[in-house]
Amino acid sequence: MRRPSSRVARVAYYVLMLAASFLMLYPIIWMVFSSFKPTNTVFSTAGELVPRQWTLANYVNGFKGFSGVPFWRFLLNSLFISVVSTIGTVLSSAIVAYALSRLRFRLRKLLFVLVLGTMMLPAQVLLVPQYLWYQKLGWTNSYLPLIVPYWFAIQGFFVYLFMSFMDDIPRSLDEAAKLDGCSYYGIFFRVIMPLLKPAIVTATIFSFMWRWDDFLSALMYVSDTEWYPASLALKLFTDPGTTSDYGAMIAMCCVSLVPSILIFAVFQKQLVQGASSSGLKG
Length: 282
Prior knowledge:
The protein has 14 helices and no strands. It starts with a helix and ends in a 5-residue tail after the last helix.
C-alpha cells in the first residue's frame, strides 16, 4: 500500500509541473486569445486573458497582406526557404559526418576539430564578411544567401549529431556491404542512411524551425516586399510613421506558429528518440 506521504509528494510534483508548464505556455496562450480581440483593445486589456468582444477582423486584415501581396505568399516564401535549406542541411551534414566517422584519411581529426569549432563561433562575427562576400557574388536581394550555404554543411551541430549515430552503427555492416560489391556511396545510401532515421528526423525538425524563424538573414539579404518570408513580413504591421495594426500582427504570428507546431507534434516520438540516442538530453 502506498504511503500517504508518497502520494502527497506525487500530487505536489504534478501540481508544480502543471504550474510551471502554464507559466511557460502563458505567452502563447495570451497571444492566441489576443488575436481575437479588436486591435484597439489589445494592449488596453492586456491583463485580461479572455476577450470581452470576439472578432476575426485581425485574421481577415492580416491575410490581406501589403502592397497587393497577400500574407499567404509570405508563408509560401518561408516554406520554400525552409524546405530547400533543410534538405541541403540534412544531406550535406550526413555526407560530411559519414566521411569523418567511417573513412580514414590524413587530417581527419583536424577537420573534425574545425567542424566543432564552428559551433563555438558566434554567428554575429560572420555577418559583415558574409554580406560583403555575397554582395560581390551578386546574391543580395535573392534567396541564394539563405539557401546555398546550407548545402555545404555549415552547421557543425548537425554534423556532430549524425556522427554520434554513425559511431554506434557496427562497422561489420560496412564490411558486409563491401563484400556484396557496394561502393562508399552505396554503403552510405543503402546501409547508413536507413539507420539514421531518428537523427534525420531530429535534424530536420531543428533545421526547419531555425530557418522558418530566421529574421536577421532575411532582413539583410531580401529587399523586395513580395519575396519577404513570414518572419520578415510580420514587421510590416508595425510602422512608426503611421498607424500599427498590432491585432493583425498577433493574428499572423499565431498562423506562423502552426507549421512548427505541426511538425513537432507529428514527429515528437522520433525527436525524443533521436535526442536520447545522441546524448542531447542532459
